[in-house]
Amino acid sequence: MLARFYTLKGEVSFKRVQKEGRLRSFDSFGLSVYERGDAEHSNFGFVVSTKISKESASRHRIARALSEAIRLMLMEIKPGYDVVFLAKPVCLKKSTEELMREVHPAMEKAKLLK
Q1: According to the model, what pLDDT value does residue 1 have?
Q2: Distance between CA 93 and CA 36 in Å, rounded?
Q3: Whole-number pLDDT of residue 96
Q4: Residues in the chain where the model's pLDDT stays below 70
Q5: What angle, 0 to 180 degrees and rounded to 10, lies between the N-to-C axes of helices 56-72 and 96-109?
Q6: 43-47 and 81-87 as β-strands: parallel, antiparallel, unpaired?
Q7: How buried is residue 8: exposed, middle or buried, by Cβ count under 10 Å (0-12/13-18/19+)?
Q8: C-alpha span between 8 and 74 (Å, rounded)
Q9: Does the structural domain 4-109 have CATH classification 3.30.230.10?
Q10: Where would you tag: which of 4, 48, 52, 92 has the fewest CB atoms within 10 A of its CB?
Q11: How far apart are CA 101 and CA 80, in angstroms?
């Protein structure tokens, strides 16, 4: 699981990424990226709304899969970004492994890797 040290905290941070960040769309999720322009580590947030599923277990599985994929690639990620993953309904049909495999190419296309 991704350490809290690397997670976005507070509604203000999420709103800033939503308002000022650039949005990239992928098969299973959208990726909203805000460049802070500092040398601090990058922070990540995961949004899996009740529109995706009414069952919290399903929503948490998706968020945990995305979070774990980020944790495994932390050393490759450039510093100075706030990133929010926005899950799409298609995530429910994919396995945890499939979701995790989609994160690396998405991060490459968003130019977030060193």
Answers
A1: 83
A2: 34
A3: 95
A4: none
A5: 50
A6: parallel
A7: buried
A8: 15
A9: yes
A10: 4
A11: 24
Report how far residue 80's alpha carbon sits from residue 56's, in angstroms, rounded to the nearest whole number: 31
d(C-alpha 65, C-alpha 79), whole Å: 22
49: left (phi over 0), alpha (psi -120 to 50) or beta: beta
Residue positions counted in the chain = 114
- Map out the domains of the chain as residue ranges: 4-109
**Structural contact between residues 30 and 46, judged by C-beta atoms closer than 8 angstroms:** no
Any idea which residue has 């203000």 for tokens? Answer: 12
Whether 60 and 95 have beta carbons less than 8 Å apart is answered as no
d(CA 83, CA 70): 11
